[in-house]
Specification:
about 260 residues, mainly alpha, 2 strands, rod-shaped, zinc ion binding, nucleic acid binding, zinc-finger, Znf_CCHC_sf
């Protein structure tokens, strides 16, 4: 920024734009090994912050290339090297992921939660695959796709059902509700284990009474068995002599005391 005076002596402020590479925000370099879509987003953010024109962007992008990425310049005619869109198009052809969008979409459809994988890890990968498979789609469309495939990828069927009933609008809301539901499930299981360990006095008393009744019934059956009549004919239990089916045996008569005729005289 410079200050000058016009012929009338009035001070005027003029702004001088700094050349590419000397702006307020310096764009990162690109060597072809990192993600080109992500790099382009960073570069455009720096260009916007610095207020660069199309020619400024072309110059800055050429100066940011490193390694094998510099070889792309050999495919660009000299008269087009000041055209930012042409440089981006050539770099997109070599390092872009347009040809991989169908591959990423197939991976997205087949994505499932892995054993031991947290919901946060699953959500991050779903978000990545959605953006790789739909890089030019509106944000609202990508949110709907991400919510759908995140729910389908969750392993727990109860969590899936709860999320479908809740109908969250964004992937962030879906993850938050899924975490809340999982926490509630863990708390319910923990409470159930505590209740299982606590003695149920009602059940204990009921079982104790049942055991006592069984013991009393067994004792009664034993007494009944001991009180069964015994046959004087065959000696077996359960019937008397008058109802015995076996032949009557000769029984020894019970001795009777007889008084002597000599006694008492």
């Amino acid at each position: 920024m410079n200050t000058a005076q016009d012929p009338q002596g009035i001070a005027r402020v003029t702004t001088v734009r700094e050349p590419p590479g000397k702006g307020r925000v310096k764009p990162p370099t690109f060597d072809g090994t990192s993600s080109w879509p992500n790099y382009l987003k960073q570069f455009k953010a720096a260009a916007t912050a610095n207020g660069w024109s199309g020619t400024d962007c072309a110059t800055a992008l050429i100066l940011s290339l490193r390694g094998n990425a510099v070889d792309v310049l050999e495919t660009i005619p000299i008269e087009e090297q000041a055209n930012f869109e042409q440089i981006v198009k050539r770099l997109e052809t070599r390092y872009g992921q347009k040809h991989l969008e169908d591959v990423y979409f197939t991976m997205l459809k087949n994505r499932a939660q892995k054993p031991g994988e947290s919901l946060q890890e699953l959500e991050a990968d779903i978000s990545r695959l959605v953006r790789l498979s739909n890089p030019d789609s509106p944000e609202s469309f990508m949110e709907r796709i991400a919510v759908r495939y995140f729910i389908e990828a969750i392993h727990d069927a109860e969590t899936q059902q709860a999320l479908r009933l809740a109908r969250p609008k964004t992937l962030a809301d879906t993850l938050s509700q899924a975490l809340d539901f999982e926490a509630a499930k863990r708390a319910s299981k923990r409470d159930g284990r505590v209740r299982a360990l606590q003695p149920d006095l009602g059940t204990f008393n009921e079982k104790y009474l049942e055991a006592m009744i069984e013991r009393l019934l067994d004792a009664r059956k034993s007494n009944i068995k001991r009180r069964q009549p015994q046959c004087w004919n065959c000696g077996e239990l359960g019937h008397v002599r008058s109802r015995c089916d076996r032949p009557v045996t000769q029984q020894e008569e019970k001795p009777v005391y007889k008084r002597s005729s000599q006694q008492g005289n």
